Amino acid sequence: MTKKLVIVESPAKARTMSRMLKDGYTIKATMGHVRDLPEKKLGVDVENGFSPEYVVPRNKTKVIKEIKAAAKDASIIYLATDPDREGEAISWHLVQAAKLQNIPAKRVVFHEITQDAITEAFKHPKNINMKLVDAQQTRRILDRLVGYKISPILWRKVRKGLSAGRVQSVTVRMIVEREREIEGFVSVEYWTIEAELKKKSDKKFRALLIGSGGSKKISITDQEEAEKISADLKVAKYTVASVQQKSSPRQPVAPFITSTLQQEAWRKLRFSAKRTMAVAQGLYEGVDIGEAEPVGLITYMRTDSTNVAVQALTETRDYVAEKYGPNFVPKSPRIFKKKVKGAQEAHEAIRPTSTRREPAMLKEHLSAEQFRLYDLIWKRMVASQMEASIFDNVTVDIDAAAKSKKYLLRATTSTLAFPGFLILYSEGSDSDENGNGKATLPELAKGDALDLIKLFPEQHFTKPPSRYTEATLIKALEENGIGRPSTYAPTLSTIQDRDYVEKEKGNFKPKEMGFIVTDLLVDHFPQIVDISFTAQMEESLDQIAEGELEWIPTLKAFYDPFAETVEKAIAEMPKMKPADEPTDEVCEKCGSPMVIKQGRYGKFLSCSKYPECKNAKPLPSEIEAKCPRCGSNLVERRTKRKRVFYGCSAYPKCDFASWNKPLPVPCPECGGLLVSKGKDSAKCQKCNWEGSVEELGQGEKEGTV
Hints:
Helix content is 34%, strand content 23%. It is of the alpha+beta class.
């Protein structure tokens, strides 16, 4: 029998597909990318067409060897990597790295891992789309040029181990600038006045003062003015000026795309973007739900398109009609227009692979996280194909005639008349799920006289803008065209791992390092951290993917002025004395804060009271992992006998220590701290999970930001 070799990225995806393809197919997983630019040099020939030098990482040589061996007996290779630029690039890199050019290789693309989708994809194989490969290569080379040229400057000027990147640096700048807005905000006093009224023996209700002297605007700036107006209102005669009644529909929102899923998962589930994508990946790649074989429960989770397949629309509308009745189904399917610039319309929205798989039916087969996220995705999709909710709104304007002036007050109420999609789902951050946010009003008519019961003047102060949360930051990145679906989660993780920002009560707050690096980049590399420039680069990448731009001229247009800026920055910086970098560490001799200074032989810790206190010591080497007890950075230390161990940088406040090297990725089971156990394995210190280090690397693919 002729053997057919299928290549995917992950073992989980391979297991699911193996049950669907059955006999005659051999499936191998690449475990992510199989080639990349070298770690210790630029790896891009900027003088000769930006030719990249790709290498196979040491941990991928075994994978390549196994795939080459399997390919010897194959008559055809099907490249079934994920349906995006990264997936396209992984397929292309594999063919090059494993030298498979002499074997027929076809690309199969599907957006869900179900029997029908797999069967259809293998009926219509394609060639590798080199436009998508070029776009991915351009992004990778751009990121390497920026990071490789700017990061060493940060090491010399600020601290070793820092990194700069197109998306990452702009994101940090947005958080820093928001913090400075908050710090510089001047609060302004203002007052509101509500009147409690009633019509004869009817129930009481409240109306808000909104205008005076014939104007429908009023501004009360201090207590004296509030008391003066209150005095007028106490003796005023109140009459209903108008009553307006109208019905208004509220339409459901579109099925999820990557950014809206990450936003909603934060609002409703408090999942970080990284956690959301990890859970979604498992739902996409396949879950054993007690059927004959594992099945993918959702469509591909990295997408910026709200398109939905006709078959899925029909199935969802049929389900709604059966479950809720025909009056809950719109006359025609809802088609949502794309809102994201550059959205790839060949993709689909994130939806259940079958609406018939209700969350409750799958609960026993899913982890708690999987169930909660699947429930959210399922409800959003079903609600998107339901009728609008209808609200009956009543607005009552009330004249208050005082001795010297006439005032205008307004009372409103909104009552849910028909639940529509709200019977199932309401978008996050709504405080009132059924839409009844205000007390109902009594029956009122124009000319009705009203009695004043009591006045409620209240002092307020304007508030500064809020810090970004996971949801609002992703929304801001999307609105500004910064990054793409696959970059949001790794970007948010990177800026925290690099100590640029931290979370405080769920909000992003810049750390001192974030301020320092942002200011340095704004001063010397303003274009790199410019929001509009970064967005233009994303548009250029989209145009390369569409075949509208060539990738080499695009890189040249960026690199030539960038190289000049780097040279200028290097020339200017030797003239500047490095500033002392603050730390959280305290001098054990005098109790003053310790700072990081730049000496002849590199950076070291010194007392900030120098020369009064001359305490100094070597700077501990930080590693990319956080203390499981207090969240501070972990550092490499040595005992008196020079034995290496890893401890909390907040010592002596926190005495956490480990002989085994902590790893930068959390435990896939409990989120606890993983430590290295031998050459290729890891163990969780919290739940004792053990596994392969290689498998832990299969999270977000486009992680270089």
